[in-house]
Fold this sequence. Notes:
107 residues; mainly alpha
Amino acid sequence: MTGFEIASGAVGRDGTHVGGHGAEYDAAVMRLRQRCSGARTFGGEGLFATITGTYNECLQVSLNALTGIGGEIAETGEGLRMVARNTRAAESANVESFESFEGPTWR
């Protein structure tokens, strides 16, 4: 034996918890996107207009980069729930296998 055990109930619960964080993350990015529409100039095409234009471009690139992370967090939660389901299925199959074995070695 490897000494490695999985508490499938805890892993499943934690997967649900992590998956919920994905939705919370997406909501936070959406609120940030709504609030941060960018800086505006007060007219003119001077140095300040160049700085605010660059700032706005960086802001949009940053928000676009953050957009996909919520989905990855949610998929990680689903992966943890799948591990829990697979572990329970494997344990059930092992129990059935040993119960149906009729050889004298295992009894």
